Amino acid sequence: MKTPIVRLLSTGLCATALVACGDSVDNVTGVNQTEGDASTNITTNNPTPGSNSDSDAAPTTTTTPTTGVSMGETQGTTDGTTTMAADTEDDTAATPECGNGMQEGNEECDDGNDVPGDGCEPTCNVTAVCGNMNVEQGEACDDGNTEDGDECSADCQTATPTQDCGNGMTENPEACDDGNDVPGDGCEPDCTLTPSMCGNGMKERGEECDDGNQVDGGPGDFCLNNCTTFFPANCQAPANYIVCDDAPDVISNKGDKNNMLKAIGICNDTLANSIVTTDFQHSNPVNVSWQVTKGYGTYTYDHDNDANTPPQRLYSPREGSTFLIISNGEIAPPNGEGVVIEAPNNQGTTDNGNPDYMPLPPPFKAVNGSNNGAGGTPFMNCDNGVGDNDCSDTIQAQWEMTNADGNDRIYFTFKTVVPAGTYGYTFEFAFCSAEWPNFVDTQWNDLLIAYQVDPTPDNPNANPPVDPYSGNVTFIPDPNNPAKGLPITITALDPYFIQQGYTYNEPQLAGTGFEQHACSDWFTAKGGVQPGAEITVGFFLADMSDQYLSTAALLDNFRWDCEGCIPSEVDDCGVQPM
């Protein structure tokens, strides 16, 4: 596992990630890049997200305006437009008919029959051939032979990269590999995890908080010296939460959508021991697009640097017994142990049956909401009570760049009253996408939004002034302008994926279905709210501009936060270090 994130995507970290970008695309096939003063020209032989292998079609050239930096730069470097010489995705979004004997749209082949293993599968994908040096759908690797004992198993289902500590790729039996020999930075020079150190000012694995001071809780201090949370007397948020996701029914009963809330830690019991919600709304998602699970993937690691304790699954519950996975594709049902394990590299062409081509549902807004609705002052002067638009100013440009075309969408929302003396909430999430790396800096940029509406009236005369925040909560700092934010997409996360995420054949992706693509580690997101307000909170995920190539989000551990955060300080609220 790579370095635990320290102040996620701060300007310095992003700069480091961008430097690493040129060394990290060796495994990307069919991408040629030329730097220039005004544009970056990207030529790809795989222009259609529905395709998992090289196409015979003519290449598509994408010209993306940039500031003359590398392809690893985030979408904040673009002018929000993408000019396509041949808009392959739009052309292939027509309805191809698999089985009619004619290769159409995003089909890799069409032999007019439903015989598997004959070169063209009944799904109109080319039959995977182990040993041909091409990683095809259903394969985790392909090294050009069918022998065991090397980097790829004889059946092309198990990748075992050769260990090279310090190459920036985590390979068994390494616990991490950050590509440097700096001790104490989360990953040691011998590729073992740096033990958590309470009091160093960085929240690390196993810590609830770490403020780096010697104040053991009290006025203005919300973290005890043992790195657990301090609850002031005036904060009426629960100090101890009950568990409500440990019954088998929470996993198995897909007819009760309330299990989505239970899976993320919302029990609706009493105000003293749980978060209590009302007006639970959801998109009535098809069952394959959400799962409650005890774990995801097969990778385990020594989470506590103690050889006497069993290893822990990388994607395991952050509270209670389960967590929630939502997807704009399809998720395999949990196995007999309640764990979701996907076939290798199977998050390809999907249409899960959820609604397409519809506007954002309430309360989500793809309209800038800062500066009293005029935009331009992200996180400040929110237009609360007027439009409750996105005060982060992060969604509108992204929504317009993707033609406001959210496919296979899944969402849910609820209302809840903020306890007295409580100024925020937190939740944890991870993000995986098969759109990465081929469609970074394009309109095919799947979008995750966590949104809040706080209807508290403004009070500019208060000390400090009260400017309640409504808008996107899952934003990260824009490396080109730290006062601005970016939404959670593959483009925004590209530097993180390259530097600290899990990509290509790294073992952390095993069993996720995103082998050859990318997943993040768990992140924490923080929202700032006003005590006593009845807020609305929602989560939204969609496949932008088409219905091809899946993206999944893992959600868990929704909790009140006495301290809260200040939305106008972009690195205080939003996605936090982990």
Structure overview:
It contains six helices and 22 strands. With 578 residues, the protein is mainly beta. The strands form five sheets. Strands 6, 9, 12, 17, 18, 19, 21 and 22 form an eight-stranded antiparallel sheet that branches. Strands 5-11-20-13-14 form a five-stranded antiparallel sheet, covered by helices on one side. Strands 1-2-3-4 form a four-stranded antiparallel sheet, with no helix packed on it. Strand 1 and strand 2 form a beta hairpin. The longest helix is centred in the first third of the chain and has 11 residues, at 11-21. The protein is globular.
Q: What Rg, in angstroms, do the CA atoms define?
A: 23 Å
Proportion of residues in helical segments: under 10%
For the termini, the CA-CA separation is 13 Å
Could you state the oligomeric state of the chains shown?
A: single chain
Number of helical segments? Answer: 6
Given as residue ranges, the uncertain stretches (5+ residues, pLDDT < 50) are 1-93
Write down how many β-strands occur, each being a DSSP E stretch of 2 or more residues: 22
Decide which structural class fits the backbone: mainly beta
Question: Topology of this structure?
Answer:
Elements: H1 11-21, E1 31-34, E2 39-44, E3 60-65, E4 83-84, H2 88-92, H3 248-252, H4 258-263, E5 277-282, E6 290-293, E7 295-301, E8 312-315, E9 323-327, E10 339-340, H5 395-401, E11 406-417, E12 424-433, E13 447-453, E14 471-472, E15 475-478, E16 481-487, H6 490-499, E17 502-503, E18 518-519, E19 523-528, E20 534-544, E21 551-561, E22 574-576
Parallel strand pairs: 7-10
Antiparallel strand pairs: 1-2, 2-3, 3-4, 5-11, 6-9, 7-8, 9-21, 11-20, 12-18, 12-19, 12-21, 13-14, 13-20, 15-16, 17-18, 19-22
Helix pairs in contact: 1-6
